[in-house]
Protein: 3-isopropylmalate dehydrogenase
Organism: Xylanibacillus composti
Amino acid sequence: AEVKKIAVIAGDGIGPEVVAEAEKVLNKTEELFGYKFETEHGLFGGIAIDEKGTPLPEETLQLCRNADAVLLGAVGGPKWDNNPKELRPETGLLGIRKELGLFSNIRPAVIFDCLMEASTIKPEVLKGTDLIVVRELTGGIYFGEKFRRDSANGQEAVDTCVYNVSEVERIVRQGFEIAQKRRKKLASVDKANVLETSRLWRETVNRIAPEYPDVELEHVLVDNCAMQLLRRPSSFDVIVTENMFGDILSDEAAMLTGSIGMLSSASLGEGSFGLYEPVHGSAPDIAGQGLANPIATILSVALMFRLTFGYEDAADSIERAVKQVLDAGHRTADIAADRTKALSTVQMGEKILQAMTK
Ligand code: NAD
Ligand code: IPM
Ligand code: MN
């Protein structure tokens, strides 16, 4: 098989712990299916600040540019929280998304039946929940001008939220197209009752909606959406929204699945290249203790196989293995009813490897 190059940037905190398990899945896939992966590691985030003086060293960016896909862990931690903006791990994360043109962030939230009990929401409400948050990733308030200035009332801070029509149009089209391949329902989430960027967003959605007559469209204001996600999660199919709303709603959606340790993501641009990472962060509170759930990262590898490489068989194998392991009652602490019987990160990784079949 053709050798696929994967840049691996594990980052900080639990990043390296969960990425190590995902790399074992890559190896197992080579054994089972004969695919060939060449992995190369790069420094990224806080560790890159410590070793190279910048969260996104040029060589790491080059490594990603030369790869077919990127596997990312997570970045950040208390050590760097008071650094100036350019020396923050999170600035590296925003930089890599922007530099690689990854404007579309796909975050599926699917409830495994056997994990109903792990969620804080009632099973009868959760039943059948299978949604995708399509989050705009390279615009909005994350990337607009930011500054401080003096005012008559002391220092003030400014974050600007900017979207142009083409940025809105390309992500909304993604939303419609993904919905067309699923249950054909699209919820466009905005705050059009207050924000000018949201009014442009909604106008754009309404202008292009007639091109997707088979998709049932609803506009939902973001505050209401946050509430409806808990009230009627199973009624959502695809949610398309701007950068910050998507960040917040996807963490909320994670709790429908039982844990943020379950949520995978793909960040895509125009071509097949993609960056794959769990939705969760570096979890400094549990880092280095073997407590992290590696499933989000392992499921991100399945997304990589499906969306960048077209390796459906290998993607199915991973997803089947995860389901089988959960059905058998294996749990990491975050999804365990009895934490004293929980598996470690490595043990969960092992169980999934053992369950993978051709
Ligand atoms: P977080 O997602 O790291 O953690 C939130 C809570 O979820 C914590 O209690 C943590 O222990 C738990 N958790 C997260 N992932 C888990 C896993 N795989 N298994 C079990 N439990 C898990 O969010 P936070 O605490 O708000 O942020 C911590 C740091 O991570 C910050 O520096 C933040 O900027 C960064 N962050 C990075 C990314 C990323 O790299 N993509 C995403 C979110 C946050
Ligand atoms: C995420 C994270 C990042 C974001 C932070 C760490 C910059 O929360 O990937 O969801 O807000 O995009
Ligand atoms: Mn987030």
